[in-house]
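Input record (one chain):
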Amino acid sequence: MKEIWIGILASLFFAVTFILNRTMELSGGSWLWSSSLRYFFMVPFLLAIVAYRKGLGETKKEMFKKPVMFFIWSAVAFVLFYAPLTYAAAYSPGWLLAGTWQLTIVAGVLLAPFFTIIVKTKSGEQKFRQKIPAVSLCISLIILAGVVLIQIPHAQSVDIQTLWLGILPVIIAAVAYPLGNRKMMELLGGRLDTFQRVLGMTLMTLPIWIGVAIYALLTVGPPSIDQLTQSFIVAVSSGVIATTLFFMATDLARDNQGKLAAVEATQSTELIFAMFGEMILVGIALPGPISLVGIVVIIIGMGLHSFQTALEQRTKEQAPGQGRQA
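The corresponding structure, as predicted from the sequence alone:
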């Protein structure tokens, strides 16, 4: 239950991304600056936090232990996640991005076979391929159904260009984020805490973001003061606070695929936060009856995930031995 509440809190801060990225695009800001500035602003905050916790040495050690894999999965988790998300903001409102982003719930569950679990037996440790947790998948599909219901009233006004350019990049991001996050947890094996992991992944991807910023400077010019301000808010709210909270929750649940799926499913609440945020800041209309039903379905799905997680935890505590993810 603790992991789920942390995940929901992270979703509240994540919702800022969808709202502000859209407002930056509406005011003429480029997605190139929106994506790169976020990570530039994250670095000093993370450096200060990790330095205060005396963790810079361990972070550097892990970054250079397997630099190629560290770079690859950091790029998947951060670059292939955030660049498509900011690009899509040029074509879709925040509510549509947040809604499509919920595909990450199902993607996270379906990624289970890409990972192995180490089980201690009488003959030693053995590796087994993870299985897709059927119950978690079914509950995630319930949440996804609620997301679809919320989208129905709005999707009628979306043209083909918005559909492809606004949705396809988000689908890529929705798969890349849980894949990169889980692969990094597998690579590090719990040797770095959440702040160290986010810092290491951010530093590893800086060369890419510097390249994006240089390209932006040459093609669209420097960012406006307004975009700098909003990107700073996104960096603190979503990049530092939300990412740290979410990674903290997934770290706590990394040994249990069902619990991990429940944590990833908390991202469904981003849609609710984003919708009400846009109502206040952008002035979108109140949700209709169908959308309200969708919100209720999402809440029911989250409740089922919470119940399942508590039940699994109780069963795990009663079991004599457990495996660990590898």
